[in-house]
Specification:
This protein is α+β, with helices and mostly antiparallel strands. The chain folds into 2 domains: 2-153, Ribosomal Protein S5, domain 2 (2-Layer Sandwich), CATH 3.30.230.10; 161-266, Alpha-Beta Plaits (2-Layer Sandwich). Helix content is 30%, strand content 28%. The protein is built from 10 helices and 12 strands. It has helices at 64-75, 97-112, 119-129, 135-138, 174-179, 190-193, 201-204, 210-216, 218-229, 255-258; strands at 2-3, 6-18, 24-36, 38-43, 48-53, 81-87, 142-145, 150-153, 161-167, 234-237, 244-249, 263-266. The strands form 3 sheets. The protein has a 4-stranded mixed beta sheet with strand order 1-4-6-5. The structure holds 4-diphosphocytidyl-2-C-methyl-D-erythritol 2-phosphate and adenosine-5'-diphosphate. Pathway: Isoprenoid biosynthesis; isopentenyl diphosphate biosynthesis via DXP pathway; isopentenyl diphosphate from 1-deoxy-D-xylulose 5-phosphate: step 3/6.
Length: 267
Amino acid sequence: MINFPNAKINIGLNITERRPDGYHNLETIFYPVKINDALEIIESDKLSFESSGLDIPGRMEDNLCVKGYYLIKKDFDVPPVKIHLHKNIPIGAGLGGGSADAAFFIRLMNEKFELDMTIDQQLDYARKLGADCAFFIESKPVFAFEKGDEFESIKLDLSSYEIVLVMPNIHISTSEAYSGVKPAMVRQSLLELIYEPIGEWKNFIKNDFENNIFKNHVEIRGVKAALYEAGAIYASMSGSGASVFGIFAKTSDLSALEHDNQVFYHI
Ligand SMILES: C[C@@](CO)(OP(=O)(O)O)[C@H](O)COP(=O)(O)OP(=O)(O)OC[C@H]1O[C@@H](n2ccc(N)nc2=O)[C@H](O)[C@@H]1O
Ligand SMILES: Nc1ncnc2c1ncn2[C@@H]1O[C@H](COP(=O)(O)OP(=O)(O)O)[C@@H](O)[C@H]1O
């Protein structure tokens, strides 16, 4: 059985406070986008993991799909599986690719072995694997809060716009990104701001990781500036970076951007 874990972008990201457990409380909008991995499981006589496509750093035991298998195995009598992941979502990009694989692995096991897990149960397993894994259980636009693993549904449909994503050749670790941020409370929640006209977003929707990351990697700041120069209505780094997205009118001429020497997606 096979499914196709999708990436996300963050529209706005406010890091509001440091928590006693070392994590941070935040608020963000998660928006699913069409860059996908392919994940397959086949019942087998022993657990195995192999991947193709982009190289995934770390050992097999550290892969979030394998961690997901052991988590489920504790509670359900499931047989070993052969896992194949075709990796296409850029890694360390702020696109949540590893988290998406973990959540889609839970979904796949639930379906394949008819485990009858409720959505709440799947969310609980996902939360144990990483803060933004839970989003990918349903993968629909949400306002996320606390560690980024509690949600409120929102109505947000950007399908009438052209969204482009630029991936500079830089990978940023999530914990490195958090270590450079000074948390601050916000005056107005993103849950309200997201309903303002999109043409206004650039005036008040921000990503708190940008300041510090832009200081250390000026080329990422340059990508965001280039997206605005090309006519973006809104542009931002996604999550902890390094990818940057721009939202454009469908009729925009993006040829200047496509000539840049960077990986470029229409999402
Ligand atoms: C920053 C965000 C924004 O959506 O995503 P990415 O941009 O990396 O995709 C998320 O908060 C990333 O979530 P995720 O990648 O699942 O984080 P985890 O694996 O649980 O944690 C990695 C490390 O990030 C830090 N961390 C993560 C989430 C959070 N709310 N506070 C934190 O301080 C902790 O240092 C933790 O050890
Ligand atoms: N299935 C997976 N795909 C990608 N990375 C994974 C996976 N499982 C574990 N990882 C680990 O997670 C790290 C960051 O993953 P990723 O989700 O791409 O980051 P980000 O959310 O910042 O884009 C990788 O460096 C890798 O070591």
